[in-house]
Amino acid sequence: KPFIENTVRSLGFACIGKAKVPILGELNAQIVRTALVGPTEQGGYSVDLQAPPRPPVLCAGCPHRGFFFSLQKNKKQIVAMGDIGCYSLGVGEPFGGFDISTCMGAGISGTIGLAKALEMQGDPRKVLGMVGDSTFFHSGLTSLIDVIHADANVIACVLDNSITAMTGHQVNAGSSKDVQGNEVSAIDLVAIIRALGVPDERLRVVDPLDLKAVQEAFNAAIAVKGPFVIVTKRPCALIKEVARANAGKHCQVDPGKCVGCKACTLIACPAMAFKDNKALVADPASCTACGLCMQMCKFDAISRVGE
Question: Is the pLDDT of residue 265 over 80?
Fold first, then answer.
């Protein structure tokens, strides 16, 4: 809607806006230039090189990958709601990480009504909702309060990667530094969750790259009726300090031990590849030696390098 345009006109000034600037879509330099000076004959630029395809996927070493791999193994017992964040990439194949995503904060708040609807139609599945640490501080906290107050049959997951990763690594209330780099008091989101009255037997704090621990958390959450909270804690692999700590570390595959079962490819890590019936770490520069592929391999064919 042309709110500013209409307001300026109401003040008695001639104004034009939406007649020249599209209502939908993003602005770019060409659209703005055309709106200001009219159409031009200047064409675009072309290059001979073709950029390689890069589908939107979770980064190599992303802590969310372990969470979504474990989640997909429990999908028959869960209806999952997503939220707005880089973990939204978990919706893609092979994880199919959630069934619904509407708006920021609804990853938890929306679970209350859905849980009641499933109960009314006799559906035994439990609703799982997820938010990131930034979204938790933004609007997930109040949503979790509602889940607890309603005694909703919900698994509320907070995927804490210590940063607002999707929009450019901005700090949040859980960060120990502010936007200017000054030391500040980080808010402990686990302490907040406990303060809301969540008992330890209904709370799990796990490393999402520990597949056994994540699965045990899911088992405990599914087994009980009512609210259950899972917090995954591991920093984003692209945080500068984390990237420095991981410099020079990567995994490698022993082709003599690899039997070509492709189990390591089930985690959909972009650093992994499969060639000549053997797995390989095709991009060691992006590999962080997170160890997920090692946990997938039953033949001890994958090891860490650089530790």
Answer: yes
Could you identify the residue written with the tokens 């520069």? 285
Task: Say which residues have a Cβ less than 8 Å from residue 133's Cβ, sequence separation at least 6.
Answer: 158, 159, 160, 161, 162, 163, 172, 174, 189
Give the position of tokens 């990439």: 89
Read off the pLDDT of residues 74-100 as tens digits, 9 standing for 90 and up.
Answer: 999 999 999 999 999 999 889 999 989
Residue 96 — left, alpha, or beta (φ > 0 → left; ψ -120 to 50 → alpha)? left
Q: What is the pTM of this model?
A: 0.84
How far apart are the C-alpha atoms of 22 and 45, rounded to whole Å?
A: 23
Residues 146 and 25 in one domain: no
Instruction: For residues 178 and 261, state if they share a domain.
Output: no
- Do 230 and 257 lie in one domain? The reply is no
For 117, the token pair is 């609807």
Mark whether 236 and 254 lie in a shared domain: no
